[in-house]
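ingest -> validate -> predict -> emit
validate: passed (alphabet ok, no gaps, 238 aa)
predict: started
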Amino acid sequence: MTTDNKGLRADEVAEYLAKNQQFFHIFPGLLDELSIPHPESGKAVSLLERQVWQLRQQKQLLQDQVDSLVSIAGDNGVIMQKLHHLALRLLQAPTQQAALDALYQQLQGPFAVEQVTLFSWELPNTSLAGLQQLGVRQDWVASLKASLTPGQPVCGFIEAQWKQGLFKTTEPIESMCCVPLGWQSVWGVLALGSHSNRFQPDLGIYFLKILGELVSSQFNNLFNDALPAEPELTLSQS
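emit:
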């Protein structure tokens, strides 16, 4: 190993050792002379002690990741149970009005959504209390409709006009989610509002898509919006 007048830089030494991993096999005596500071106390410790500390840190990091995954799995299980219960309530409803009432009750109850409103742009075959119509003459309504795609809920801190038009409340709406309704086209929107940042832009929409499908399936017949055709199943011949 050679040096110039300026000496070796630390990164050069690190690069050399990374490329020559047999170095300490050739010069094992250098291990006894290494001075390795403990990351927490700063005291000099042996290489073995430093490795043990690092392994403990890695183990704790992995444990934290496992705990996080278990917690997320538990939360997802609770949400799925709520969606399952909502689906049962919709199936058991004797009328469309009863189904709509059950939808509001479940979202404001078990799901704890502070503000819930169901809107449609088209006139339904049957009028229901709680299903409101939105005209497209106002700019914000046209903008809202143009931004929605079937099966793609939109969450976040959405435009102020949307919040004011969708939620008739004096309480501030910090975040909201617009769940498009309809299979072939968007005939309506399920608007969910929160007084906190619950519906952040990066919120996962998997369960919200399921919610939209449940609501669309229940009320599509009011707007003559047919379900998409199921793909044909082909049986392989062996």
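The two ends are 67 Å apart (CA to CA).
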